[in-house]
Design brief:
Strands 1-2-3-4-5-7-6 form a 7-stranded mixed beta sheet, sandwiched between helices. The protein contains 4 helices and 7 strands; from the N terminus they run βααβββαβαββ. By secondary structure, it is an alpha+beta fold.
Length: about 160
């Protein structure tokens, strides 16, 4: 099985496509949670958050938006993370993780998290933190297998932490 051996920055075209997709994905995930009252509210919230975190015209070199590349040179997934100060500590915070459709069910989700864990340790970070929607069974199962623990749960979402 192939390992994650490197990353590369998104191209401007990939960034634009991702930015549009993440609004749709976030909106879909918000609907049906206690976070929003309607689909319209979900869309407005998703657009506002994505605009705040991924502004149009942002210098891509300033963002940790990375395509994950395996040892065969194939793009297998994507990771968006950053160093943040949360719970009175510096952590690696995952905004989004994605394994491309043709590479799913091959262990790449675990490999991407392991890759980030090693990078975080090298930066002196001792924890990875993320938020996940409670209804996303596949993501929740992956994070639990990888040793993440729930530290808070509200409005259909979970905050999880992994100690490195």
């Amino acid at each position: 099985m192939s390992e994650i051996v490197s990353t590369r920055k998104l191209t401007q075209e990939e960034f634009t496509a991702y930015r549009n997709e993440v609004v749709e994905k976030y909106c879909e995930e918000l609907v049906g949670t206690d976070s929003v009252a309607s689909a319209e509210e979900a869309r407005a919230f998703a657009e506002t958050e994505v605009s705040r975190l991924l502004p149009v015209g942002v210098d891509l070199d300033c963002l940790n938006l990375n395509v994950m590349v395996n040892d065969k040179g194939e793009d297998v997934g994507f990771l968006w993370h950053e160093k943040r100060h949360i719970l009175e500590m510096d952590v690696a915070f995952i905004y989004d993780i994605l394994v491309y459709e043709n590479h799913r069910k091959k262990g790449y989700g675990q490999r991407i998290i392991a890759y980030l864990a090693e990078a975080a340790k090298k930066e002196g970070l001792g924890k990875i933190v993320l938020n996940v929607f409670a209804k996303n069974a596949a993501a929740n199962a992956l994070y639990e297998r990888m040793g993440f623990e729930v530290i808070a749960e509200a409005k259909g979402q979970k905050a999880m932490i992994k100690h490195l």
